[in-house]
């Protein structure tokens, strides 16, 4: 499959507080399903040191390895460079710029939860990412 030029790809930024759970799962699903058709970023308003181990385990169960990911701080530049910004509980810490699409996904926070509690959050995120792909006009590759 030929690579889509960066200028022609929609860009999506997922934001949650710690960038260790919800936004990491969403970014991983979008990267996995969209292949190179979407530019994907994730960040947190107060990033953790590492990705939640229960998130790593739950994503591994569906064949997606997020063990090498690291939480990143939310920057104005990341928001400015994105077409769609999806917040997941970061409150009003996300800068707003005209011309961007902003969505807020209300999802349980996997922080401090075991893998049994993370699975339904993971599955809901996958469902929402598949819906996002449809609105972006991108066909899932996986």
Task: Summarize the SSE layout with pairings.
Elements: E1 11-16, H1 22-34, E2 39-44, H2 53-61, H3 76-80, E3 84-87, E4 101-104, H4 115-136
Parallel strand pairs: 1-2, 1-3, 3-4
Describe, in plain words, how this protein is organized in 3D:
The chain is of the alpha/beta class and about 140 residues long. Helices cover about 35% and strands about 15% of the residues. It has helices spanning about 20-35, 55-60, 75-80, 115-135, and strands at about 10-15, 40-45, 85, 100-105. Helix 1 links the parallel strand 1 and strand 2. Helix 1 packs across helix 4 and helix 2 (about 55-60) packs across helix 4. The protein starts with 10 loop residues before the first strand and ends in a 6-residue tail after the last helix. Mean pLDDT is about 90; it is low at about 1-5.
Strand content: 5-15%
Main sheet record: 4 strands, parallel
Question: With helices defined by DSSP (H or I, 4 residues minimum), what is the helix count?
Answer: 4
Terminus-to-terminus distance: 13 Å
Radius of gyration: 14 Å
* Helix/strand order, N-terminal first: EHEHHEEH
Give me the count of strands. 4
**Can you tell me the residue ranges where pLDDT is under 50 for at least 5 consecutive residues?**
1-5
Name the overall outline.
Answer: globular
Structural class by helix and strand composition: alpha/beta
Question: Portion of residues in helices?
Answer: 25-40%
Mean pLDDT: 91
Give me the oligomer status: single chain
User: How do the strands of the widest beta sheet line up side by side?
Assistant: 2-1-3-4
